[in-house]
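pinned: reference chain
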Amino acid sequence: MKNEALIANEGFDGAAEKMESIALSLYYGNNLAIQDVPMKVYENTITALIGPSGCGKSTLLRSFNRMNELIPGVKIEGQVLFHGEDLYAKDVDPVAVRRRIGMVFQKPNPFPKSIYDNVAFGPRIYGYQGDLDELVEDSLKDAAIWDEVKDKLDSNGLELSGGQQQRLCIARTIAVKPEVILMDEPTSALDPIAAGKIEDLLQELKEDYTILIVTHNMQQAARVSDLTAFMMIEEERRSGVLVEYNRTNELFTNPIVQSTQDYITGRFG
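pinned: its structure tokens
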């Protein structure tokens, strides 16, 4: 039966469809982690994934660029379409997928290299033939950190503050020119001021990128996202399911499903 709460799957303000999961399920060994997730992602939008711990938010996020395949024993059913192409087709290179769909992790993870070499790392691997200095500068500017580091590009990236390290990681991600950026709780390890800078940055980045962000912070989801998907654990199989997917203001002010209402008002989760 069609879930009438999945309104965003019918379209979003005329935005072009970028990605779509179709009946997406994922197993860790025999454990069903997410079950039959249908979700459309739209260009130049920020989509937040919210829900209680263990409901499969990060698993779903990593399914969009095949990161889960790096975990032994993972089995995936269903499809993830990117520009209409199934990313899980046998002839699709997962490394190429991860270049076009970048990832920013929960904890900043700069390489133990200079700030410059952190940003230049990906382009060098992929054989970038342009002006590398210009690319590094542009990426750092796009990540809103250039003015803070332009005079110390040879310094180790690990010497930066936590918030600066996360913006450096964002610069490293966008240096290879992805189309989509996946973010798994990118501000949870940061203080409120640093987190605020990342939130401000997201609004600038969505002009050029499509962004999906997992967050446990519902206020953050309400502030930064255009669309919000609420997931929860389906009790019978203990697997994550997509319950409601809608424009963020609608989901937070007028949820259709009672469990969504219960979660955002703090009655469970």
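why pinned: The mean pLDDT is 94. Strands lie at 17-28, 31-42, 46-50, 74-82, 85-86, 101-104, 180-184, 210-214, 227-234, 239-247.
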